[in-house]
């Protein structure tokens, strides 16, 4: 173990800092990270930063928010935005963070798919991450309702009504969720409780689980190479840092994360300062009105692809009604990526660009999701309806049929 003495020169000072770091690595059971990774592996810490921003700004906003159907709209658009000092800033930060966090979530998830980070013992990392995505979706939806504007109200009306499709108990479930026969004050109170109390606690718990699962069997790398972390860590601690394939989480990896966070926060501050309106629907600046339905109801951009799948099936197929088919497809879409370790039947752990058929499949999936997102905000009429239908079918076929076939062939080809 390194012996630490009084430094007699600048060189000795740096040598002792290295010795202290190595000693800390041994005593603290340091977590090691593959050296062969890039900025895409910083998405997790950026997500943690954004969640912290959401949590802090949410606490500031909830001090003045009124979870009452008669007071909620004014408490947001007048009290917070005009009367509370810097209230407009906290609201803009909260709204932009709520939107951008889904952009980073999608990047994080598809980086995992591209590099096969859901395979070879990493299944729990993937499943816990997708569970976080679902909980964040519930958190976002409950928060979208709180301003009690027109789009908030009618989006809640549409989404809660979906539970009516559950056989036998559907209508009872809808009434239980709403607390009334229609979306009203009890509904707002329920969603306020979910948004500020229950769901944040659940998110924190699952984040802890997700971080812990990263230790078993460590994160993936750019080449999908299997690394003996104990052996490579010994190399690093012995001073052979050049040939070691790993770096310590601190300071080697986390110092880079701080740099990426700094760059990201510059981008985030720019959005908050100059382009905050992209995270706020203009229709939602009108107070909720149960007797006035908006011309076209749609969710936030990060839910548009699922919404398009919901309404993509606009005609009956045999005994099944279009609404039931759409609801089933929508329910599956929400949990579909959970099962990536089951769809991918290949034993190959490598980035997509080293798996030709998988590479083509990956980009077809991305293109299909972009089409679903774009058309999810357009009226489902004429040509738009047919594009939505084929894109919805395409999403299901790509996951349930195409991916298993190409990965089974890949597995056979490697035997």
From TrEMBL:
<dbReference type="GO" id="GO:0046872">
    <property type="term" value="F:metal ion binding"/>
</dbReference>
<dbReference type="GO" id="GO:0016491">
    <property type="term" value="F:oxidoreductase activity"/>
</dbReference>
<dbReference type="InterPro" id="IPR048259">
    <property type="entry name" value="Cytochrome_b_N_euk/bac"/>
</dbReference>
<keyword id="KW-0813">Transport</keyword>
<protein>
    <submittedName>
        <fullName>Ubiquinol--cytochrome c reductase, cytochrome b subunit</fullName>
    </submittedName>
</protein>
<feature type="transmembrane region" description="Helical">
    <location>
        <begin position="191"/>
        <end position="212"/>
    </location>
</feature>
<feature type="domain" description="Cytochrome b/b6 C-terminal region profile">
    <location>
        <begin position="239"/>
        <end position="415"/>
    </location>
</feature>
<dbReference type="Pfam" id="PF00033">
    <property type="entry name" value="Cytochrome_B"/>
</dbReference>
<keyword id="KW-0679">Respiratory chain</keyword>
<dbReference type="InterPro" id="IPR005798">
    <property type="entry name" value="Cyt_b/b6_C"/>
</dbReference>
<feature type="transmembrane region" description="Helical">
    <location>
        <begin position="258"/>
        <end position="280"/>
    </location>
</feature>
<dbReference type="InterPro" id="IPR016174">
    <property type="entry name" value="Di-haem_cyt_TM"/>
</dbReference>
<keyword id="KW-0249">Electron transport</keyword>
<keyword id="KW-0349">Heme</keyword>
<feature type="transmembrane region" description="Helical">
    <location>
        <begin position="387"/>
        <end position="408"/>
    </location>
</feature>
<dbReference type="InterPro" id="IPR005797">
    <property type="entry name" value="Cyt_b/b6_N"/>
</dbReference>
<dbReference type="InterPro" id="IPR027387">
    <property type="entry name" value="Cytb/b6-like_sf"/>
</dbReference>
<feature type="transmembrane region" description="Helical">
    <location>
        <begin position="39"/>
        <end position="65"/>
    </location>
</feature>
<dbReference type="GO" id="GO:0022904">
    <property type="term" value="P:respiratory electron transport chain"/>
</dbReference>
<feature type="transmembrane region" description="Helical">
    <location>
        <begin position="325"/>
        <end position="344"/>
    </location>
</feature>
<dbReference type="InterPro" id="IPR036150">
    <property type="entry name" value="Cyt_b/b6_C_sf"/>
</dbReference>
<dbReference type="GO" id="GO:0009055">
    <property type="term" value="F:electron transfer activity"/>
</dbReference>
<dbReference type="GO" id="GO:0016020">
    <property type="term" value="C:membrane"/>
</dbReference>
<feature type="transmembrane region" description="Helical">
    <location>
        <begin position="356"/>
        <end position="375"/>
    </location>
</feature>
<keyword id="KW-0479">Metal-binding</keyword>
<keyword id="KW-1133">Transmembrane helix</keyword>
<feature type="transmembrane region" description="Helical">
    <location>
        <begin position="95"/>
        <end position="117"/>
    </location>
</feature>
<dbReference type="Pfam" id="PF00032">
    <property type="entry name" value="Cytochrom_B_C"/>
</dbReference>
<keyword id="KW-0812">Transmembrane</keyword>
<keyword id="KW-0472">Membrane</keyword>
<feature type="domain" description="Cytochrome b/b6 N-terminal region profile">
    <location>
        <begin position="10"/>
        <end position="223"/>
    </location>
</feature>
<keyword id="KW-0408">Iron</keyword>
<feature type="transmembrane region" description="Helical">
    <location>
        <begin position="124"/>
        <end position="145"/>
    </location>
</feature>
């Amino acid at each position: 173990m390194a012996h630490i003495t009084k430094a007699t020169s600048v060189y000795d000072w740096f040598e002792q800092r290295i010795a202290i770091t190595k000693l800390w690595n041994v005593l603290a059971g340091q977590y090691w990270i593959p050296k062969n990774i890039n900025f895409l592996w910083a998405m997790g810490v950026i997500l943690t930063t954004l969640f912290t921003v959401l949590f802090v700004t949410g606490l500031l906003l909830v001090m003045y928010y009124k979870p009452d159907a008669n007071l909620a709209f004014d408490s947001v658009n007048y009290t917070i935005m005009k009367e509370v000092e810097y209230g407009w800033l906290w609201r803009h930060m909260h709204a932009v963070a709520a939107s951008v966090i889904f952009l980073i979530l999608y990047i994080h998830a598809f980086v995992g798919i591209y590099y096969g980070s859901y395979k070879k013992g990493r299944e729990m990392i993937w499943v816990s991450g997708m569970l976080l995505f679902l909980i964040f979706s519930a958190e976002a939806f409950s928060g979208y309702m709180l301003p009690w504007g027109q789009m908030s109200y009618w989006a809640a009306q549409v989404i809660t009504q979906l539970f009516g499709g559950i056989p036998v108990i559907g209508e009872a479930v809808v009434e239980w969720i709403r607390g009334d026969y229609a979306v009203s004050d009890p509904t707002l109170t329920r969603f306020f409780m979910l948004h500020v109390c229950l769901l944040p606690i659940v998110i924190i718990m699952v984040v802890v689980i997700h971080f812990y699962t990263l230790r078993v069997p460590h994160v993936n790398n750019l080449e999908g190479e299997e690394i003996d972390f104990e052996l490579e860590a010994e190399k690093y601690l012995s001073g052979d840092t050049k040939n070691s394939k790993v770096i310590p989480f601190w300071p080697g990896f986390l110092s880079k994360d701080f740099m990426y966070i700094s760059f990201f926060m510059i981008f985030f501050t720019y959005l908050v300062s100059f382009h905050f309106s992209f995270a706020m629907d203009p229709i939602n600046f009108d107070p909720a009105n149960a007797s006035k339905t908006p011309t076209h109801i749609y969710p936030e951009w990060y839910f548009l692809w699922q919404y398009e799948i919901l309404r993509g099936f606009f005609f009956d197929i045999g005994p099944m009604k279009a609404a039931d088919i759409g609801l089933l497809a929508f329910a599956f879409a929400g949990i579909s990526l959970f099962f990536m370790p089951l769809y991918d039947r290949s034993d190959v752990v490598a980035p997509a660009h080293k798996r030709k058929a998988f590479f083509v499949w990956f980009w077809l999936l991305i293109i299909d999701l972009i089409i679903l997102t774009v058309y999810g905000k357009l009226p489902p009429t004429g040509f738009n309806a047919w594009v939505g239908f084929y894109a919805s079918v395409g999403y299901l076929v790509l996951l349930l049929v195409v991916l298993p076939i190409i990965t089974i062939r890949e597995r056979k080809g490697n035997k």
